[in-house]
Amino acid sequence: MDIDVRGPRFGAAVTAAVLAVVLITGNVWLLAWQTLVFALGAAGGVGHSPYGWAFHRFVRPRVGPVTGPKGLEPSRFAQAVGLVFAGVGLVGYTLGPLWLGLLATGTVLAGASLHAVSGWCVACEMYLLAQQVALRVE
């Protein structure tokens, strides 16, 4: 199954904004929200996340037809990676140490920002590289 490449990029932009607010304010509830968004995206694909829904409902009708379809699995993997980092960030913010929360949140913010600005998804590339390695091992 393919998805519109602009959807994950839109989601990455919203994610970057949310995580920037988390780092500025220390709002744990906002980080918990973002962790839930990652969980929904990892479980059902980016189309089942709130940001994917917003893209399909409000943005996609205004930007025209799909340009450059992308496979669903790399994006789901990226959501899972975001889930792990946001989860670690949530633990750091709530149970400590605070530096762990800041580091994990900052790391996922960097990845989301890179994807939003350039279209390059680090976790998606990790997924594709792992697929190539797995094929060579077989």
What this model shows, in words?
The protein has 138 residues and is mainly alpha-helical. It has 6 helices and 2 strands. The protein has a two-stranded antiparallel ribbon. α1 runs antiparallel to α5, α4 (72-94) packs antiparallel against α5 and α4 (72-94) crosses α6. The longest helix is centred in the middle third of the chain and has 23 residues, at 72-94. The model has no long low-confidence stretch (mean pLDDT 93).
**Strand portion:** under 5%
Question: Count of DSSP E strands?
Answer: 2
The radius of gyration is: 15 Å
H/E element order: EHHHEHHH
| Main β sheet profile | 2 strands, antiparallel
Features:
about 140 residues; mainly alpha; two-stranded antiparallel sheet; 6 helices; 2 strands
Short description:
With 138 residues, the chain is mainly alpha-helical. Helix content is 80%, strand content 4%. The longest helix is centred in the middle third of the chain and has 23 residues, at 72-94.
List the helices and strands and how they pair.
Layout: E1 2-4, H1 6-25, H2 28-44, H3 50-63, E2 69-71, H4 72-94, H5 98-118, H6 122-137
Antiparallel strand pairs: 1-2
Helix pairs in contact: 1-2, 1-3, 1-5, 2-4, 4-5, 4-6
